[in-house]
Write a sequence for this structure.
């Protein structure tokens, strides 16, 4: 079976590599690009630990072949903080509000939260819960994750108003 | 879990995809969102030698509502179905059903074409398409044909689609203005397939039910069009007796397997409960 050439923009950087078509996007990101932020939790499309942003949409990268992502723009958890390392409002809110314990689900949660707040900048708690319903956490019981996303939303909205 | 090896193709047009499918033969499979196929490939329950990715084919995308007909391109994602305000106003049961499928990430990728062509009795769109009396448009190298959703499903993963054919669109008459509708799905958690689910579409004229169609998800090895259940409602005032007759008629055609969702008898019972609740909700929404 022949390898294919894939090209994509990952966290703002263009990458081009050849890969076996059966390579899953999560393996490509972790093993070829050394982006080990997105995790493999279940490998069965359920847990959302592998969530990345693909062309402006949250997707589970364990269930996408690398060829399907050819030409795409991808953001992983590594691309969410500022270039100088400043944490994103979501990352600060997760840290301050005890929204993680073991931290395994956190990259997926934050990457999903990042897109959710662009789709819906003022979500209710119920909308946050439905918005992250594809992301499982075995530790926290979700309360503080929902709270952190709500607080990050408020902060982002205040920052935006201040900028106007 | 690593899938078997395959060659990857991404044709730019429907014609190119159909000729690839014809030349590569039965070892080739099309991939839409891949959210049913890739899990099967990881389990090596599917080991295609060629994957033909349909994502670049614009002819397979979009929702068209005109002259009393709704046509939805096969590659339209569940998220796009949910986001379409026109579709919501013409046929709101589609959004209601799509929102009960999986989670936001899966809905961003999973397509209506993949959902109905897959042939898994757990998929939610097939029963809805049967309730809407949809036609599936199938195109192969010999031309195009239409098959009714009510005739399409033969057994689990066996459908009327022939080797070499691609499902290009689903098409159905816009339901009458003021119709009542409901899709009720019992599931253990978000992201689970139905223990049982029911789609109900009906119209009420001066207090009398003038049309009704009912279909069931995941209580047999295919989706089930519950014809007798719908007929039990037509001509009635949707009184208790008529609803009870419809529920019994729907339960009578179920043949679920026992699985983690419960024993067969329980799933049949839940199918009846879903039908009863969906009728009540549809009746309330009709005007
Ligand atoms: C965690 C999880 C939970 C889920 N829960 C639900 C649920 O509750 N309800 C539900 O209905 N679904 C559920 N699904 C399945 C999901 O909706 C799939 O996306 C959908 O069933 C298939 O769509 P797809 O576009 O991903 O198709 P694919 O996986 O790409 O294809 C599925 C099959 O259809 C064939 N096919 C695809 N498109 C065409 C076409 N145009 N013409 C001919 N053949 C075609 C493929 O060859 C393949 O055999 C779930 C999936 C996951 C991962
Ligand atoms: S690893 Fe992808 S959903 Fe769990
Ligand atoms: S913090 Fe441990 S899984 Fe979420």
């Amino acid at each position: 079976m022949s390898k294919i050439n894939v090209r994509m923009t990952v966290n703002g950087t263009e990458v081009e590599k050849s890969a076996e078509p059966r390579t899953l996007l999560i393996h490509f990101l972790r093993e070829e690009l050394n982006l080990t932020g997105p995790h493999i939790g279940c490998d069965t499309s359920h847990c959302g630990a592998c969530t990345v942003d693909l062309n402006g949409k949250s997707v589970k990268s364990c269930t996408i072949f690398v060829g399907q992502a050819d030409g795409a723009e991808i953001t992983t958890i590594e691309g969410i903080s500022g270039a100088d390392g400043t944490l994103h409002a979501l990352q600060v809110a997760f840290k301050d509000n005890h929204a993680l314990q073991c931290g395994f689900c956190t990259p997926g949660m934050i990457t999903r939260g990042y897109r959710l707040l662009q789709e819906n900048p003022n979500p209710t708690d119920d909308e946050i819960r439905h918005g992250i319903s594809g992301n499982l956490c075995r530790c926290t019981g979700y309360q503080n994750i929902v709270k952190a996303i709500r607080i990050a939303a408020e902060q982002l909205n205040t920052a935006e108003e201040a900028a106007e | 879990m690593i899938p078997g090896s395959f060659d990857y193709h991404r044709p730019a047009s429907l014609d190119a995809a159909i000729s690839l499918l014809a030349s590569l033969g039965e070892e080739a499979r099309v991939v839409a969102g891949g959210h049913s196929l890739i899990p099967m490939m990881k389990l090596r329950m599917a080991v295609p030698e060629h994957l033909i990715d349909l994502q670049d084919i614009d002819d397979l995308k979009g929702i068209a509502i005109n002259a009393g007909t709704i046509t939805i391109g096969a590659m339209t994602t569940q998220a796009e179905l949910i986001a379409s305000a026109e579709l919501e106003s013409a046929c709101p049961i589609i959004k209601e059903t799509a929102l009960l499928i999986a989670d936001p990430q899966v809905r961003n990728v999973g397509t209506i074409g993949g959902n109905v062509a897959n042939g898994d009795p757990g998929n939610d769109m097939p029963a809805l398409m049967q309730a809407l009396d949809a036609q599936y448009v199938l195109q192969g190298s010999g031309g195009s044909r239409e098959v009714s959703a009510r005739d399409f499903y033969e057994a689990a993963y066996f459908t009327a689609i022939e080797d070499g054919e691609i499902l290009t669109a689903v098409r159905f008459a816009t339901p009458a203005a003021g119709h009542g509708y409901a899709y009720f799905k019992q599931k253990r958690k978000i992201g689970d397939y139905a223990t049982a689910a029911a789609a109900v579409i009906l119209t009420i004229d001066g207090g009398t039910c003038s049309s009704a169609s009912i279909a069931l998800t995941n209580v047999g090895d295919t989706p089930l069009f519950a014809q007798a259940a719908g007929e039990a409602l037509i001509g009635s005032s949707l009184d208790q007796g008529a609803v009870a007759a419809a529920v019994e008629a729907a339960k009578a055609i179920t043949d679920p397997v026992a699985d983690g969702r419960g024993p067969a008898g329980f799933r049949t019972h839940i199918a009846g409960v879903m039908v009863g609740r969906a009728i009540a909700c549809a009746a309330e929404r009709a005007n």
Summary: The CA atoms of residues 52 and 76 of chain A lie 5 Å apart. Residues A 40-43, 45-50, 60, 62 surround FE2/S2 (inorganic) cluster (ligand 2) (CB under 6 Å). The radius of gyration of chain A is 16 Å. Helices of chain A lie at 25-32, 89-96, 106-119, 125-131, 143-163.
